[in-house]
Amino acid sequence: MNIDLKETTSLINSDKQFPKITAIIPAKNEEKNLPFVLPKIPSIVNELILIDGLSSDRTNELARELRPDIKILKQTGRGKGNALRCGFQKASGDLVVMLDADGSMDPAEIPGLIEPLLKGFDVVKGSRFLPGGGTSDMERHRRLGNKIFLTMVNLLFKSKYSDLCYGYMAFKKEALQKINIVSDGFEIETEINVKVLKAGLKVTEVPSFEKKRLNGNGSLRCWQDGRRIISTIFKLRFGRSPI
Q1: Structural domain contains residue 135
Q2: How confident is the model at residue 41 (pLDDT cuts 50, 70, 90)?
Q3: Average pLDDT over the chain, rounded to whole?
Q4: Within a domain: residue 241?
Q5: What digits encode the pLDDT tens for the residues 114-159?
Q6: Cα–Cα distance, 60 to 37 (Å, whole number)
Q7: Does residue 41 belong to any structural domain of this protein?
Q8: Helix, strand, or coil here: 48?
Q9: Who wins on pLDDT, 123 or 17?
Q10: ∠ CA 55-58-63 to the nearest 5 degrees?
Q11: Which domain holds residue 196?
């Protein structure tokens, strides 16, 4: 799906009742990366929320310098999942986008995630494996792991996803309110992708390109987080986890 930013922005400007858009960005010690992310958030975003994971650098101060209108919240626990859940609770937008603070996700892709929501979809997933997508930040073992998890979900839940463990997504706020998200770690992406299926929500994918983290080291722990993803898949399929 090819998205024209000017076309989408024009549509927004032409409709006074256009939905309000919130962008949620979890961040911990991302001072060096925020200058490459926050200024690029497109003007169609009405509310920008940064969820701070108790940063020890100038993440918060720099965020305010770059975007005086930004809302900064302290997450209540630990982990990416916890941060996103805190953001979802505070988002006031009709449409909600989540993206990372490390520069790996291009903010210019936000209109591409929003447009399908305007056409009736409830959830839009960025995919690195659709034509037009890609990644320069996936080692062989991570690519294999994502493929295994993806195959499990597609088989167990009869889905046709092309990507699973990728956190560039957009939602109608009402869709988020229909699923009970409980994950604290990186498995939150898998939990969301499965629960939207179980809830019968209308989901589509759009191409997305993932760059390498610009600066610093991420907190993803491949083996530990991989086990949590597998556990999440089986709990959602064979357990009694609520939607």
Answers
A1: yes
A2: very high
A3: 90
A4: no
A5: 999 999 999 999 999 999 999 997 778 878 888 999 999 999 999 9
A6: 14
A7: yes
A8: strand
A9: 123
A10: 95
A11: 5-235
- Element holding 210 (H helix, E strand): strand 209-210
- Bridge partners, 172 (sequence order): 95
Average pLDDT estimate for 49-71: 96
Select from 81, 84, 89 the least CA-distant residue to 220.
81
Please tell me whether the overall predicted TM-score, pTM, comes out greater than 0.90 for this model: no
**Token digits of residue 108:** 């210019």
* AA identity, residue 238: F
What CATH number corresponds to the domain at position 148? Answer: 3.90.550.10
Question: 67 lies in a domain?
Answer: yes
Domain count, the chain: 1
What tokens appear for 198 in the block? 């179980």
Give the pLDDT of residue 6. Answer: 56
Backbone angles phi, psi at 206, to 5 degrees: -130, 150
